[in-house]
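lol ok so funny story. i was supposed to be doing the assay writeup but got distracted and ended up predicting the structure for this chain instead. priorities right. anyway since i did it might as well share w the group, maybe its usefull for someone
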Amino acid sequence: MNIVTLLPFIVLIGAMFLMTRSAKNKQRKAAAMRDEMTPGTGVRTIGGMYATVKEIRDDTVLLEVAPGTHALYAKNAVGAVLEQEEYERIVAGAPADDGIGDTVVPDDASSLTSDEDEGAKVDFAKSGAEDGDDTADAAVTKETAADAKDDPAEGDAASEEAQPKDAKRKGTDSE
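and the output, tada:
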């Protein structure tokens, strides 16, 4: 047989070997982590529940999920064995001393702009036309509408220019 025909099979077998090896290593580490459990240790289950180990049996573990409330779990359901400080911090709800939460996030973007650009600021407040005031733009719009009513030929052209391109097509509601 030619080596070229055997090469894909060799690569496939090598990949399978590497995948099973890494899976076995993960299983070995998980078993070692579960062996670290002792009564009184804080754990997190694979479902995300935090509890304290009360009793360890062959394939199961008795967890205290709340004061006076015990539940029996399979050992494989323990996702992580936590250090005492971390478990107490999570259960007590005490903030971590890792610097998270020291940053203050502003409620709006006004504090992010500098005072040097006073002339470059944009005012996003309502324009006077929305409040009922006659501004220059509103006056021009009213004059254009009045001219369209006076001269129907020019009004049709003005209304066609004002309509979006999609509205000019036949079969739309704007005709």
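The longest strand covers residues 50-56. The chain has a mean pLDDT of 75.
back to the writeup now i swear
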